[in-house]
Amino acid sequence: MTLDKEHLEYPQRHYGMDHDRYDWSLLTERKPVHWPGGKKLALWINVGLQFYPLNQKGEPFPVPGGMTMPYPDFRHYSLRDYGNRVGIYRLLKAFDEYNINGSFAFNTELAERAPYLLQRIAERGDEILCHGWNMDSLHYGGMDAQKERELVERSVGRLRELSGQDIRGWISPARNESEQTPELLAANGIEYFCDWVNDDMPFEFRTDNGSLVAMPLSNELEDRFVLMNNFHSEQSWLEQVCDAADFLLAEANTSNSGRI
Questions:
Q1: Which of 25, 47, 131, 244 has its C-alpha lying 20 to 30 A from 219's C-alpha?
Q2: Rounded to 5 degrees, what are φ and ψ at 128?
Q3: What pTM was computed for the model?
Q4: pLDDT given at position 7
Q5: DSSP per residue, 125-157
Q6: 132 CB contacts (<8 Å, ≥6 apart)?
């Protein structure tokens, strides 16, 4: 049996990308970026603040870092909670000691459950991003469109209400999206998102509701990815971060264009 003619028609086949979300371009041929004060390298430290439900559904897949034992998995549930009760305050102390401003990506359900933590972050003046509702409320292809629309509206709107900030940034739980997630983000006033990790610099990402900025939040240098997924040592992770900084700084110096 032969295929119908329309199966061979592909309107997006042209030079560059096979879609119209963003333009294809070489990093070396883009307009130079100049950071304030003549700096060559911008350092972005983002801290994920997440809530993993004890009774996770795992739809459409079990999210990395979730429960792994039969219900009720108190051992891993309490371990996930440790970071939000203990570890984060040690990070804040280190940030204060070295005068570092970061960004903090909140699951909105955690913001509801830990108002003191949210208040501490807001009082510091650091930028808060929406990290979806929780780590078991994923956005994915095939998801009911109205359900996702309500999920984005609730996640962004409630976090704005709780934080007092005009939330402009977004990271999807597990960095997973449906086909309509970018449209929903733009419709809810989100200006930039961090799910697409295909570049070293920001780029324009088109949606039917206006453009977003795709920000290059590195997946390869994320501590959890390096330490827990790739089973590297803490020293190895430190070396990778320093190597990346040295490389990008050298590239910025030779290209006369800033890097992140």
A1: 25
A2: -105, 130
A3: 0.93
A4: 72
A5: T-EEEE--S-TT----TT--HHHHHHHHHHHHH
A6: 107, 108, 138, 139, 151, 155, 170, 171, 172, 173
